[in-house]
Every structure is written in structure tokens, then in C-alpha cells.
Fold:
Amino acid sequence: MRDRKGTARMNRETIFKQVVKPGRYVGGEYGQILKDKNKVKSRFAFCFPDTYEIGMSNLGIRILYGIMNEDPDIWCERCYTPWQDMQQAMRTHGIPLYALESGDPLCNFDFVGFTLQYELCYTNVLLMLELANIPLLAAERTEDDPIIIGGGPCTYNAEPIADFFDLFSIGEGEDALVEINHLYISMKQAGTYTRTRFLREAAKLEGFYVPSLYRVEYHPDGTVKAYLPLSDDVPCRVKKRIMPDMDKAYFPKQVVMPYIETVHDRMMLEVFRGCIRGCRFCQAGMTYRPVREKSPEVLDAQAKCLYAHTGYDEMSLSSLSISDYSRLPELTDRLLQWTDDEHVSLSLPSLRADSFTKELMDKVSSVRTSGLTFAPEAGTQRLRDAINKNVTAEEILRACDVAFDAGKTSVKLYFMQGLPTETEEDLLGIGALAEQVVERFYQNPNHPKGKAPTVTVSVSCFIPKPFTPFQWDGQNAMELLQEKQKIVGSGIHSKKVRYTWHDAKVSRLEAVFARGDRRLSAALLEAHRVGLMFDSWDEYFDYDKWMQVFSKTGIDVDFYATRTFSEDEVLPWDVIDCGVKKEFLQRERHKAYESKPTPNCKEQCSGCGANSLGGNCRWCPKQSE
Amino acid sequence: MVPQTIRVKFSKNGRLIYISHLDLCRTMRTILKRAKLPVKYTEGFNPHLKMTFALPLSLGVSSDCEFMDLVLCEPMTCEDASARLHQAFPPGLSVIALYEPQTKLTDAAYAAYEITLLDVHWKKTLTQKFSAPIFVEKRKKDGTMTEMNLCDSISSVEILEIGGNTVLYVKIPCANGGSLNPEYVAKVCGAEDYQIRRTHLYFADGVTDFA
Structure:
């Protein structure tokens, strides 16, 4: 019998020299986990549906790869989307998609998992399945095929991609993924395993959504009528999982270290989950609730351990809003006790303007820093109140002062356009705010002399996302978005202000899938068939081709992207329970239309409902039940 | 504290041959940190490691003779440093020797390569080929193409047939502007499957092993 693996490896060596950045495909990195495949009972191929460079920067994989590999019965390996030149070479030489650690083809694994971080990666999911010789549609898979499981932020509305997955892990996957492997192993050992039986059992576990166990009915007008579980032991709504105590939750001691340059090649210390702010456009802030912090002692220990095992010289404190961490000064003090001497620089992304102080700046500035970035999101206080981004112009200017005092000359400001309740005044306010920053620079007596300030204004398009107060609001029509981009530009007069904006076409495509339902799977299949892939990459994004795909598959783009959904409608994602209650989201939406802000969790509880999931949250009221 | 220079001779094999020299330099930073070697940093606003390599290695080439000089700001025995580095090295890199150098890295004058052309018996044809000028198109630093005689950049070539393959032993001078990439030699032979290994670096006499 031919040594299939041996031949495949030899073939691979030849093609490594033919492709760009072969380092993406060779594996063998320091920190990789190698196991004896004959001794483990379940093999899990963890796929990130984008390039190696992007996937290796993902914190979620680092955690889940680590925790699954801690278990002696499970071997978790990694796989990323090959670039087009590698795809061609693989097809030519008959090499199926393989995992990096063992080099074994994905189709030989027990599980193939995909982390779904953004909607525009969906075509890459299909591409990877096809390269792996795994049937794209879940309904077409046989007992020989692996179980295809999905996780990550997009699972809060996985409907557009549901037909391609056997199951989804909703919420935090640390314990969930280990459990699902154990369920599989125990059923195999007991001899009771079949795909159907396994999925039925999985649906009974908390946090697992098995799409094939629901029948979806639609009204004549196209809106969802109901999601009907096919049997009594399938839950009507799947409740997300959380790790209740982040201090006790698993965190990796080491990470796989890439050889080639990746997007974020550094230590990532996860400081806390969730967000107290409740900005009305933000899905992550809602879906990661309740807020759960780690203590500075635990974080310091985790940081030291990670540093010893990696040798990285940069560490980022990851969270949705680092300045809201209740013990930030204590944490930074602890870390700085050793990071300076070790030449490790601290990076604090997601800083809010209203908590940017000189003290913080000094600490962060102790080694190299990148440019200063704030996200006012809207140009006027009126609109900022409506979207509940509670930061004032004065707070932003004061933060810029701190930066200018320290010799910085460039500031980046993020905004959105197309927000609900937006008027022309709000759009012009963007330029006005940027110019106020420029003025402040010159008014500041400490500003760097002889240098001009640069204020970069970066404006993206609002995309309504599930589980936010704005989930019912439609995105503006394309023509309106493009017109608004010009209006914003007309409000900028100073040469010191740079204006950049995101392609409205990309945002439109995102909006279709963000609020999509299962009928979009036909479009995804067709998109894959015509060769669409890497949709989040400039060089691959093809809007016209997508519109042809939608036209051919009978999809009305406006139905998903621009339509205002009725608050009485059944939403495709109602089958998921992320903790936050619909009534809360509706209340928040109504307040938005009155331009009324809501206090954050530290100031006052607004009853979002996430506390019903339990968890160690300082600010959530304990449930009375 | 007098800075101490140490020289590491190491091999690069396995999957690491697909990692470029630049990427290896960057990776070396984290390796040295993990090894807890007290490497000296340069002064200035953007401190970086005081680390230099003898000669960059082309992508796809394995090597038994990589040389890297490090400046330590604390004294350490070579045994200690070697053991620590060995621990921190990823699969594919291996410490061959670690010592205080008596020469400069720039004293390396020649690089010797073993080019194995798999499954072909071309000793006769290749010996003939390499006895005359071989013109190839080479991309210059400014991006334009130029024609050059490959044999001008090769100081010696010996061709043998070993175990079903044809093996070329090529000696290439280390030039300041950049030595010849041995891949050119392999490609010009016309074989589909080949492996290249850098076996030695030599001093100016062309025969004494660089150390």
C-alpha cells in the first residue's frame, strides 16, 4: 500500500518553494503541540478562515488550542486559509487541506472547527471545506466525515451559514469544546455513536446549537414566522455559555510563535470580558456581558508565565474598554515592576478618551507607543447621546492635551456615519470636532514647536448588528452612504485634518449577512461556486460579482441590509439567548430616538438581563431567584 | 562591565528552511529572551539587540554552518549560554558550537553548497555545461533585469553522481554586494527536484573552515 502521507509530504516540499510566504504552510513553530495520534481519542482541527498572518493573531484560538491540548485525550491542531497560489498548487498536486502540526488531511479528523470572527470570512469557510474534500452542506455529510463545528462572534446570528455546520458553540468555548470532545469520545467508546445521535445529545448540552434540529417557517412577506425545534429535548432558545470566574478560567501558559510576520505578534493578556458602557451600536459590548474581571495578581502571574515561555517584547492588555478595568492603576504598576527592566512594552488598545490621563500616558509611554486613537463615533453631542457613546468634546480635547503635552503630534479619531437619528448637522460635526482638536494643539502652550499636528478622521459605515438596540434599524441605502461621505468631507477645511473612509460596498455586504437568515446559504454556495473568497481583502472584494450572485439566487439585498425590521418581528437570531433581554434592547432603542443616554453599569444598573447567566460581575445585581 | 562577544554556530534544517533570513532575525529576538541570555541592546530611542550574522541564507536552503555573533552585557560561561540557547531553540535550529570568537564575521570569504539533483544522472552533461560561460538573467537591486555569466560568481564546482542523484559541490565567494543565490545554479541545471545545503564557510584561502 502506498504511503499516502509520505508522498503528500514530498509533494508539499516542492510546492513550498513555489509559493509566496511558505512560512504560512510549514508549521513546526516553537510552542506548537505535538502528540501521538494513536494515543489520543479525539482529533480537532481548529480552522481560522483567513490567512495565517491574521489567524495567528487571534486570542480566541490561543486559549482554545491551549485548553483542548491540556486534555490528554484530545489533540487540537491548526489550519488557515491557503492563499490563492497555494490553493492552485494543492489542487494541481492533489494535496488536500491539512493541519499544520501533523500534516494530516482535515478529512481524517474527528472535528473540524471554524472560528467565525466576521461575516466576510464565510466564503473562506466554504473554500476550506472544499479544499479539505468535506461536503459543504451538513445534510450531505456521511459517517466518514468530521463533525463541522462553528464558534465565535458571528454565531450570535449563524443563520446565513447554518446549512454548512453540524453544530455551533454559542458563547465562551473553553469548557464547552472540551465537553463536546468528551461526549464524542464517550459515545464512540460505548459504541452508541452515529452523527445523528451525537448531534441530538449535543443539543441537550448548554450552549450548543444544532441548526438541523430546527425547522424554520417564513411568512409570505419573507420575515421569519418561527424556529420550531424538531423534538421536545431540543431547546427553543440556546443559551450562551460563559466562564463565570475569570480568575479561575483557563489561560494559556505558552502560545505558538509564528516565524513570519503576523498582524499582532505579541503577548495578549485578556484583562476582562464584557463592557459596562452599552453603546447602542456595539454587539461585542452586549454579547460579552456580564462583565467579568480578572484580578491584578492573577494577571501579573499570567503575564510573567507567558513572557517566560515566549520572549515577546510587547504585551497588549486586551479587553473591550481597558480604561474601564476597575483596578487599572494597580495592574499597570504591578506589570511595570518588571516589564521595563525586561524591555517589554505595554500597549493599551481600546482606551476611552474620558479616562486618558497624564499618569496613564506616562506609564504607557515608558517604551515605544503607536499613535493616539480615540473613537467619538459621532460628530455632535446630540448624536453621541443617542448612540450612548457617553464622551464629550471637552473630554476628547482634554485627552488630546495630555498627548500634546507629551510631545505627540498625531491623533486618530474614529467615527461612523449612517447612524440612526443622524442628520446633516451631525455629519458636519465630525469635521468641526477634528478642527477643534487642531485648534487645541496650537492653544496648548506645551505643544511640540515647529511641528504641525495631524488629525486623521476615519469614518466607517454603520452596520446594524444582532443583539444591539439598533438591530432593527436598517443601514442607509448605498447612494445615501456615498452622499454622506461627501458631506463629511465638505465639513473639513483644515489641511491638518486627513479624511479617510471605508468602502460603503463592503459595509453593505456585511450588513446583508449580519442580519441574514438561512436562505442566504444559497447565495453563499453560488458565491463559492463563482470563486468569491477573501472578501475582506481589497484585492479580492468584488461587489458587482456579489450582486450578480444575489440576483441569481433571488436574494433581495435591501430586505436584509436596509429594511427597518419591525419590533414585533421574529428575528432569525431569536433562537439564541445571549443573556441581554430583548425588552432592554427595545427600551434602549426608544431612548436613542429621544437622544437620551443611559448610565453605565458602574453608575447604575439598567437591567439588561445578562446577570441571569450568573458569573462574577462586580456591578450586576445578584438574581433574586 | 566589559561586553563579551560570543559566536554561535548553528544548523538550520527541517521546516525552518522555508523561513527567510529576515524572519529568522526577528525570531532570534524572542529566542534569546526565552534563553535569558543577557544580550546587549543598542543605545538610543529604539533599542535593538546587538546581534550580527555572517551571511544570509537563501530561502529553501538548509545549513550546517550558520554563524551569529552576540554581545552579552554580563559574563557567562559558554557552556551555560549554549545550554540555555539549546533549550530555547525551536525544532529546526540546533547549536553546534558556542565560543568567544577570535576572528571577525566579515572574514568569511567563501560559502560551500551541496546541491543534490534528485533522480537524475547528469554528471557528464553538467560537467560540460559548467566548463563554459552560462548566461542567466538576474534581477538587479533597482528592479531591472541584467544578463550575467553564472560562472563569474562561482569559484569552483565539482560534480558527482551519488546514489541515484547528481550532486554538485559549489564554492561561491561571499561578496559585499550580495553573493550568488545557489538556487540559480540548481535552476540552470534543469532538474525539477533538488535540495540545497550550505555545508561550509571558508576563510580567504578557500580551504580553511571559518570559525
